[in-house]
Amino acid sequence: MPLQVDDIQGIILYGYGHLRHACFLLLGISEPSATRAWLKTLDVLSGRFNREEVDRCLNIAFTSGGLRRLGLSDDLMTEFSTEFREGMGATPHRQRILGDSDESSPDNWRWGGPGTPEPHVLLMLYARNEIALSELLSEQQSRFATAGLTPLAQLETTWLPQEKEHFGFRDGLSTTGIEGFHNNTSPANTIAAGEFVLGYLNAYGQYTQRPLVDQSRDPIGLLPHAPEDSTRGDLGMNGSYLVFRQLSQDVTSFWRYCDEQTRQRDGASNAAARTRLAAKMVGRWPGGAPLVKSPEKDDPAFSGENDFLYHAEGDVHGLKCPIGAHIRRTNPRDSLEPDPGSDRSIEVGKRHRVIRRGRAYGAPVVSSMDAADVLAAGDRAGERGRHFLCFNTHIGRQFEFIQHTWVNNPGFDGLYDDDDPLIGDRGGSYGKTAGTFTIQADPVRTRVTGMPRFVQVRGGAYFFMPGIRALRFLGSL
Ligand code: HEM
Questions:
Q1: Which of 145, 190, 274, 291 could pair with 321 in a Cys bridge, judged by C-beta atoms 3.0 to 4.6 Å apart?
Q2: 231-269 pLDDT, tens per residue?
Q3: Does ligand 1 have an atom closer than 6 angstroms to the CB of 397?
Q4: Cα of 144 to ligand 1 centre, how many Å?
Q5: Does the structure show a pLDDT above 90 at 290?
Q6: DSSP H or E stretch at residue 347
Q7: What is the pTM of this model?
Q8: Is 246 near ligand 1, meaning CB less than 6 Å away?
Q9: How far is CA 310 from CA 189, 292, 313, 347, in A?
Q10: What are the extents of the domains in the chain?
């Protein structure tokens, strides 16, 4: 079945690279009837738009508390996924799964944790320039009081120089495509629509569970029909779950660590070795070239490359791209059991993919994004990091699986004491102190140890981003 692009919110299908100014608003619903009326009039962008014509736009998502507050009945709520209903920061079990311990514990979160007011609505604002964004923001803010909404937090974003993230690596290169819709991704990176949009077949050839509604509850037929049961309205169809984690990055500590580990005998820094270690940790060079394609240097010819595998490139043992590098852990491509290197291995990987839509926040330590300048700048005040956002239809099998079974797992793919060097929790979820990173080499591997946690969680929540017809249905509850 082709995607119903007009009914899917645009940010699920596109990253809005032309709308580089964005801000995210967390809102509480104080008067549900006023909020429902507001929802009916809200102009959200669908996936069918012309880049040249769209200078600003809105998208919207809800926490499970938000849907309840809008008046969704308990029996429909139970048909949403357990992870979504429980929430990201709500249980010790989920905290363990995600590795949110110590400084990153939900108790310390600025939003989404037990000690802060529960956000109900996430309003996402995007614009082509600063002026358009501030106009859009003021227009929206002026409606909050009549819409029965209480602002809880305003999360700003930054578009960093050279399309990089704060550590200084190009980001947004490994894109995930939707089968039958995105035609610019390689077959290994093109995944069944139902992995990212509810109401379509997923990687198992099945429909992921979501709330279906009897006709009596949708008398005027606002909702699309469920594909597997045309007598029922589909509240999930054309919607997706949005994982939102505010992750702060300690850029200075990252580069200091890489610098210290690669000093020469006389104590002098070795810039080339420092960059090489950092690239081994990421799996790509700062300019973007994947190590498996260009193991020795940051070759601009490969900077946007995403059509690669590991076993098929002959890198079975991680001699080019370490087994535990960030991009190899978060998408092992053809490295998975059973039968690594085969199509079967790639198929298994396709059950654990997400579509990333994050944005950076905070000023860069240095605008050159260069490690030597970061080190020379010393400690810079202010927080910086990434609003990590991703879409999936099964939070447990996709985002949480990546985070728990790959990112934080010391036993990932034959390793025994490492976690993700970039974003790992250093033992929080497995109760074991990690902080080791292994660089496979012939004849002997090298290991760096005592790696601190460079990324901390400052807030987060699971949201449901409904289809546009479902949004009108929620407004009519
Ligand atoms: C501050 C936190 C993070 C930073 C700085 C970061 C950085 C990066 C960088 C530099 C890349 C390579 C560029 C690209 O391939 O597009 C990348 C890729 C990726 N990251 Fe992250 N990341 C962060 C958090 C996360 C989290 C929390 C997850 C999921 C649990 C994640 C999943 C991925 C995935 C799936 C890829 C693409 C891998 C591939 O397909 O080859 N990242 N990240």
A1: 291
A2: 999 999 999 999 999 999 999 999 999 999 999 999 999
A3: no
A4: 34
A5: yes
A6: helix 343-349
A7: 0.98
A8: no
A9: 14, 7, 5, 14
A10: 5-244+460-475, 250-353+363-387+413-457
